[in-house]
Design brief:
The chain has about 475 residues and is mainly α. Helices cover about 65% and strands about 5% of the residues. α10 runs parallel beside α11 and α17 packs across α19.
Length: about 475
């Protein structure tokens, strides 16, 4: 096969990606979509990936991505079924209010303690309704990988230029660095807001909202306007980013960014939460979007789309971190000084909580593939990891209710890798452009320089992480 044949293959791959991404976006934001069209496109995608696997072995990134495409095409029906089960089966009633998987985070933000516990317990009991579908998803996916002599963990490590030992050491280093601080902070904020010690149903998604509940009135900021202004100040064009902010009942509860066609069709979706959490979500997702609209349109498909998950999360976390920069809060958002300092402290708590939580999640995924765990064993391992890092006895089935762990083969370590890399990037910009780097277009030019090469970005090699510097900042 000739290089020209690979280029033609990539053109078709991009077209299929864009059409599929549009359908999945419509599904996830609660708009009408076509199951038949998704099935047809997934079938075409599977066939197209099979052509690559039969005729090519390079570029290596496309070889591995084609395996992932085949696995996705063989399991898309299970993914759709999981979405439907969450909406129809993972639900309960609290008085006259119906609470489902897609609405429970918003419900928890204003529910009583007893109501939140009731919903959490009900969902844990109903998680078994998801288990057979999740089990089939993992077994089918791993079978596709095994047929080509690889496994999901091995591919993830190769994408990030890491060994299993390096990743595990990274996770343990981070977890041990925050464990003591996190638990003390958790007790402090549980006592302040809940008038008791932390409980197993005070999960990360709830606490990252409740910890800001008494600060919302002091955040009179239109975060969408502000994040767009920040991007413009750095030389980006936020008009290139499409935003869906509708609060539809069946809309995916977590904010996300969809790279439909890089760099020309990039979309952000979110559900409004409290003003602070909405701001954090928007800065994060606009970081993803700024990355995608900046990638060089002239690059081949695999350089634009086949990005390591750690790389894609780096720029989103980097932009989100601006909200914990006291200078930015004071000078740009014009917040009260005492308020800004308190906000930074609480954001730091959510960062510590995220690290403890994601370390547990990441170790679960490593255990899954290294030890070939059954779902029952994964429940047991997860309970053990949460006890180690959160310091609480949490039902192990909880992982099956997540929005990432049951639907991805790996991924969750990417958040932690990106948090460390984003810290490095911020420190570099501060060193070169000063404390107020976010007001300097030359800093924006440097950011675009590391975004533009796509998969070849120099921040994509995670074997070079300066873990010690990040740990020291915590």
């Amino acid at each position: 096969m000739q290089k020209a044949d690979v280029s033609a293959w990539e053109e078709t791959a991009e077209d299929l990606h864009a059409r599929l991404s549009d359908e999945y976006f419509r599904l996830e934001v609660g708009l009408s979509y076509s199951k038949g069209r998704i099935a047809s496109l997934e079938r075409l995608n599977r066939q197209h990936a099979g052509v690559f696997l039969k005729n090519f072995s390079a570029p290596r990134a496309l070889f591995l991505d084609s395996i992932a495409s085949v696995a996705k095409a063989k399991t898309f029906g299970l993914t759709l079924k999981l979405h439907e089960l969450r909406k129809s089966k993972i639900c309960t009633r609290v008085g006259r209010t119906s609470v489902s998987w897609t609405t429970w985070r918003q419900f928890a933000s204003h529910a009583s303690d007893a109501q939140r516990k009731s919903v959490f317990d009900a969902f844990i009991k109903k998680s078994g309704m998801l288990t057979p579908t999740i089990d089939k998803f993992f077994r089918k996916s791993s079978g596709v990988y095994a047929a080509h002599g690889v496994d999901p963990l091995g591919v993830y490590l190769e994408d990030h230029h890491l060994t299993a030992a390096q990743l595990r050491n990274f996770l343990l280093t981070l977890g041990n660095s925050v464990k003591g601080m996190f638990r003390a902070e958790f007790r402090k904020y549980a006592k302040k807001f809940l008038q008791r010690s932390p409980a197993y149903y005070d999960d990360y998604y709830f606490m990252r909202n409740v910890v800001f509940s008494d600060m919302t009135d002091g955040f009179p900021v239109d975060s969408r306007d502000e994040v767009c202004k920040l991007l413009r100040d750095l030389g980006f064009d936020p008009r290139l980013i499409a935003v869906d902010d509708a609060d539809r009942p069946s809309k995916y509860p977590s904010p996300f960014c969809s790279f439909v066609r890089i760099p020309h069709d990039v979309r952000v979706s979110y559900k409004p939460e409290n003003p602070l959490q909405t701001a954090i979500a928007l800065y994060h997702e606009f970081g993803h979007a700024a990355h995608a609209i900046t990638i060089d349109a002239g690059l081949p498909y695999h350089k634009r789309y086949v990005l390591s998950e750690g790389l894609t999360e780096t720029f989103s976390i980097f932009l989100e971190n601006v909200l914990s920069d006291e200078d930015y809060l004071l000078q740009v958002l014009n917040l009260d000084k005492g308020y800004a300092r308190e906000l930074v402290q609480r954001i730091r708590f959510t960062e510590h909580f995220a690290i403890a939580f994601y370390v547990a999640n990441s170790l679960l995924k490593m255990d899954q593939w290294e030890q070939n765990l059954s779902l029952k064993q994964m429940n047991d391992h997860y309970s053990m990891h949460l006890k180690t890092w959160l310091g609480m006895d949490v039902p192990g089935e909880y992982w099956q209710l997540h929005h990432i762990l049951p639907e991805s083969l790996m991924y969750v370590p990417s958040y932690l890798l990106a948090m460390a890399r984003a810290h490095e990037l911020t420190e570099l910009l501060k060193k070169e452009y000063g404390r107020w780097w976010w007001a300097n277009k030359r800093a924006g030019e440097e950011l675009r320089a590391v975004m533009r090469p796509g998969a070849d970005s120099k921040v994509g090699d995670f074997s070079t992480l300066d873990v010690a510097s990040y740990v020291k900042s915590l």
